[in-house]
Amino acid sequence: MGASAIVEGVPVSTEHWIGGERVASPDPFEDLSPIDESLIAMVARGGRREADAAVAAARKAFASWAATSPEERAKILHAIGGGVEGRVAELAAVETRDNGSLLRSMRDSVMPRVGHNFHFFADRLLQLHEPDFETRGHRNRVTWDPAGVAVVITPWNAPLMLATWRLAPALAAGDTVVLKPPEWAPLTASLLCDIARDAGLPDGVLNLVQGIGEEAGAALVANPSVDRIAFTGSVETGKLVGAAAGANLTPVSLELGGKSPFIAFADADLDEAVKQAVNQYDNAGQVCLAGTRLLVQRDVYDEFLDRLVEAGVALKQGDPRDEGTDLGPQITRGHFERIDGFVQRAKADGAKAVMGGGPNEELGGLYYRPTLFVDVPERSEILTKEVFGPVLTLQPFAGEEEAVELANATAYGLAAIVYTGDAERAERVSAQLVAGTVWVNCFYVRDLRAPFGGARNSGIGREGGAWSFDFYADVKNVCTAPWERS
Fold first, then answer.
1. 448 domain-assigned
2. Residue 1 confidence (pLDDT)
3. Are residues 435 and 286 in the same domain?
4. Selected catalytic residue, list 95, 215, 255, 386
């Protein structure tokens, strides 16, 4: 191993992975831990040179990987999944140090899902089939042909899990991949390259370019030799990615921001609704799917508010490596200040913070108190723009019509949460909500067979199940006339 760092006792290469080799860059960047803002490592800073080299390596490896049988591709993906499962503790420790997520969540939930991503799409590949059908005696046969080189650009809030959510189906489909991890939390992607190598993934099939989004990321999405681009991140960056891709007519899958509603009707199980409302502070509020706009029917509004505040103030904030911690830090100083800017402007607009409302002075650093606003003026910024921090708003509504109107009053459409004891109401309301996913009396129940994506400014396209293969492959139909019998 060339340049590397020891992170929570785990050796991690800080170099790129291109064409089966570690590649250095002369100008590294700092990777700081949000836990204490200390330096973890100096990481290779890629730009156009590394981006072009990685795309070239992926292009060189494509023909062989595309010609590899589905059975062999699935075997290698299962081996990668098994390799992840064998290193869950190490991956969890490194990612917690790198992005500040709770160690217990990384170990018990997130990293096992990383392994599951590979196992699921390996199995799904072998199930991929559309029965032949006839048109006036002509046979139609549908196939999913490998598309080429896919670029995958991922965010920092769950970097490895969200990377493999795109990586696994791309590799299963027969594509070769260039992964650009987030500069704020790049390290577990480097470990994944080691795992993939040990699992037998051929050189050049998976490549890693680390660096700053405006440099390495921009070079990758503008490369005309790229055949697919998958991006998860902000709306603003998504627009830039889409514009660059459009210049080359490169298909894109964009999973962008959210400002999801959490609707609780008076007939809901309030114990469960309040419990899940508090869970919207998960990962220090750095979750795109979070139901940050709490909409509660007037009949139970006061009771809901009292219970929520009681549960919220009981949350323990601190070092995410502590098993008893409920909320960790924000990812960077800049993001911390961005969140505080939203909070202070909301106060200036007349919103009332009944919980939190500022940094955690006792802990210092990047720890921001879980915050809840009530009496928020209509159409104010805190109701319409994504904060991506531990900040919720609470609004009352009278009935279904007003609940739906408030829920849809944003430019986003990623997810929605509905709590009610009436099954028919759940169906009516869900049908009217603008959202890619609606959870009824639950939250964050994810099945990889289901489509996932957003409406409006929350994204373009759907992934999961066959929808992933529809994106990462060229779907072909061969229509054959009846053969003349000799």
1. no
2. 54
3. yes
4. 255
